[in-house]
Amino acid sequence: MDFFHVLVVLLESTIRVSVPLVFAALAGLFTERAGVFDIGLEGKMLGAAFAAGAAAAVTQSVWVGLIAAILISVLLSLVHGYASITQRGNQIVSGVAINFIVAGSTVILGEAWFRQGGRTPALAEGARFQIVNFPGADAIREVPILGPIYADLLSGHFLLTYLAFAMVPISWWILYRTRFGLRLRAVGENPGAVDTAGISVIWLRYRAVICCGILCGFAGAYLSLAMTAGFVKGMTAGKGYIALAALIFAKWRPKNVMFACLLFGFLDALAIRLQGTPLPLVGQVPVQLMQALPYILTVILLAGFIGKAIPPKAGGVPYVKER
Amino acid sequence: MSTPYAKLPGWVEYGLVPLVNLAVAFIVAGLVVLLVGENPFEAAYHLINGAFGRGEYIGFTLYYATTFIFTGLAVAVAFHCGLFNIGGEGQAYVGGIGVALACLWLDQTMPWYVVFPIAIIGSAFFGALWAFLPGWLQAKRGSHIVITTIMFNFIASSLMVYLLTRVLKPLGSMAPQTRTFAEGGQLPKLDWLLSIFGLNIGTAPFNISFLLALAAAFAVWVLIWRTKLGYEMRTMGHSPSAARYAGIRESRITVIAMMISGGLAGMMALNPIMGEQFRMQLDFVQGAGFVGIAVALMGRSHPGGIIPAAILFGVLYQGGAEIAFEMPSISRDMIVIIQGLVILFAGALENMFRPAITRAFATRGQRAAAVVQTKGA
Questions:
Q1: Rounded to two decimals, what is the model's pTM?
Q2: Angle at Cα A151 formed by Cα A149 and Cα A156, nearest 5°?
Q3: Does B158 touch chain A (CB under 8 A)?
Q4: What pLDDT is attached to residue B11?
Q5: What ipTM did this prediction achieve?
Q6: Which residues in chain A have their CB less than 8 angstroms from residue B151's CB?
């Protein structure tokens, strides 16, 4: 295999594994920009993946699955919102709680309903997302350089993949070019000022949390309806935390979020690719080092050695109106 | 900002409020059991019976409780300093290196009472080391402790897979674990302690590290409430600006608190490695670091609350196994749900029922006052 072909395959799998990261990291972007920390991305994604797998298996409809995913994810977000906005509880604690509740209940309910060891039944053709092929993709494949790029990199992905990457500019537009976005960012920096302007801090934060739920729903649906045909227990496997890392790595900016997710996705794809093959100069790199690299990079970034990641100022602080 | 809630009597604050929160968590868990199509009361019966029905079961319950006392104390110490150490899982995992090294080095030549102290120091050292970096990064570079400790959990997991598959595994073996320790690497069981009560612990791995856990709980109490360092930590936890004004060196206290926390988490590794399996395996921590969060929240970060909370989770782990055996549709993942619900209701939603309870006490107080007044007239 020549180098170019390897690269195309590698980039293709990078895109495939980055999609849930992009959705989840954008989801985190909305809440964290509004001042609500969310380490429950993992749990919401897992809950959504289970809901999607279960609903699609029962109804044989991919769209019902997607809607179920979004509903469950929004519901979990509202629990997080209730705890951290209305009850002014500790946002980290609430996120941890949601991760555990979902991790346990997806297995228990999955086993009780389907009896396949925590899996949902394998989905048939119509009950999962199909690959979208661009017109003329097969005809052009043989053209050198451009052919594989068009046929394998641009074409041949799931609808949700295109949606994920479309969500990046859309999120940017919402956050930076609409009134809602301006207020959302303001509420994460200085909720007192927003309150003084007569805008409800609580309602704004709830809306941010709902946005997060919707996006996590897409992430979960992608996992169980597109990437694999059905839900497998614990299938998020830490992706929610990687997305969180990507969000911080991206310094809470939409465009950077996409590149951070692609970078972490690339490392993931590379780790699988390099398994057991020695590299020139450095010799064989342990797979475990490649797997730990996103986390190590985030720690280094957080420590301020690659620029400084400054979180939204009011992040993690419940808003109390002075009386 | 003013305190949003009125002060309650001590027994309400530390007894009733946590109990109400716990009760709600269990009611919701019961609903999940109903949803699965089983009888929650039957599940509760199997839970209690599985945890206390026989001497052996009690031995297992206390074995799990030992682990959770360590991780609960670890989270609590950091809490007092205003730090959320979510990395107990990774610190305990890395702490295992200290235990394994001590045992692999000395188990064939020395008796357990020589190996044990070295293993304690080793586990605390490695656990503290794994907490030192996040603590130092928070203190000196301002990176958020929650995020760094999460990242360190994942890094620890990769590191341990690497060590167990490449370095610590004996030659010619396929399983990712160390060799089995000889006599010197095996802690004596506490069968005599339970036989005082006429109980036979059978095969339960209830061992001497339980006493170490109790000693650690006492030491944490002394540290937090009876020493200058503990006072400084609590001051920082309550008000960082007051601490700064009082001349407390924040970064020093942060790093020390995290290292104590990590050391306690690391000591958890003694119990499964030297007390049960007599070797270090992949994933021997099994989520105990996260259970520590629930235990610390339930125990209100006080050793006197952490020990009963740890025993409660011991009951859930041991009794949960019994439920899974008797009612196959409720696997041990039920414990994870209960754990999450306890964290939610005792942690994030701890104030949900407080207004109602406060109101109840306020009206009762008024009525009592009114009675006194009429009597006086």
A1: 0.86
A2: 120
A3: yes
A4: 80
A5: 0.86
A6: 241, 245, 295-296, 298-299
